[in-house]
Design a protein that fits this description.
The complex is a heterodimer of chains A (about 120) and B (about 110).
Chain A lengths: L2 E3 L4 E5 L4 E3 L2 E3 L5 E8 L6 E7 L6 E3 L2 E6 L4 E6 L8 E9 L10 E2 L3 E6 L1
Chain B lengths: L2 E5 L2 E4 L5 E8 L5 E7 L5 E9 L2 E4 L5 E7 L2 E6 L8 E8 L8 E2 L3 E5 L1
Parallel strand pairs in B: 2-11
Antiparallel strand pairs in B: 1-3, 3-8, 4-5, 4-9, 5-6, 7-8, 9-10, 9-11
The chains are: A mainly beta (about 120), B mainly beta (about 110).
Chain lengths: ~120, ~110
């Protein structure tokens, strides 16, 4: 079975603080994909990143960075110098290679609500 | 570029009434299409997905159904809505037989009275 756990339900930080959102996944597939999505208060889901299980290089995109560690089955997301506009619910998701023939379904975590206060 | 349209944006329906939510994708062909529901508790639940016209897979048995009459059109329906059908419904597409990324529409907020 595949599962994604985001243990942090809510996080509150003050602007300019760094914040890390945790994501732990379970899968028996050797090839799989991990994703992060952002859901602002307006409701739409915004794609942030996709990682292949064979690529453990960390990735940085502006103030965002992602730390993928297969040894601990984690794919954590860090926002540096957080801003009020970062306030949103963030979802981690997993898609296993074995199911891509079934349409590439995503298994989502429960989400972490990030509140950045001025 | 590809775009996804979902309507209506909000909908208030009485219990027992029918439902039809529509989703269309532009700028791509033969996409995988998905319907998700997000209840108040925030988690996203995959309801249906489709890899082609007329091909629908159901993830959760319930009183909802989905249809794909055209390549880039995906419809979510119900003959009789229940109170438990309230939620935020999101349509998504991805570019064929690969693991995403999935791109989401703006969603429909459905309230059942």
């Amino acid at each position: 079975a595949q599962k994604v756990t985001q243990a942090q339900t809510e996080i509150s930080v003050v602007e300019k603080e760094d914040v890390t959102l945790d994501c732990v996944y379970e899968t028996r597939d050797t090839t799989y994909y991990l994703f992060w999505y952002k859901q602002p208060p307006s409701g739409e889901l915004v794609f942030l990143i996709r990682r292949n299980s064979f690529d453990e290089q960390n990735e940085i995109s502006g103030r965002y960075s992602w730390n993928f560690q297969k040894s601990t089955s984690s794919f954590n997301f860090t926002i540096t110098a957080s801003q009020v506009v970062d306030s949103a619910v963030y979802f981690c998701a997993l898609s296993g290679y074995m199911i891509y023939n079934q349409g590439g379904k995503l298994i989502f975590g429960q989400g972490t609500e990030l509140s950045v206060k001025p | 570029s590809q775009t996804i349209h979902q309507w209506p944006a909000t909908l208030v329906q009485p219990v027992g009434s029918p439902l039809s939510l529509e989703c269309t994708v532009e700028g791509t062909s033969n996409p995988n299409l998905y319907w998700y529901r997000q209840a108040a508790g925030r988690g996203l639940q995959l309801l249906f997905y489709s890899v082609g016209i007329g091909q629908i897979s159901s993830e959760v048995p319930q009183n909802l159904s989905a249809s794909r009459p055209q390549d880039r059109q995906f419809i979510l329906s119900s003959k009789k809505l229940l109170l438990s059908d309230s939620g935020f419904y999101l349509c998504a597409w991805s570019g064929g037989p690969s693991a995403g990324p999935q791109h989401f529409g703006d969603g429909t907020r459905l309230s059942i009275l």
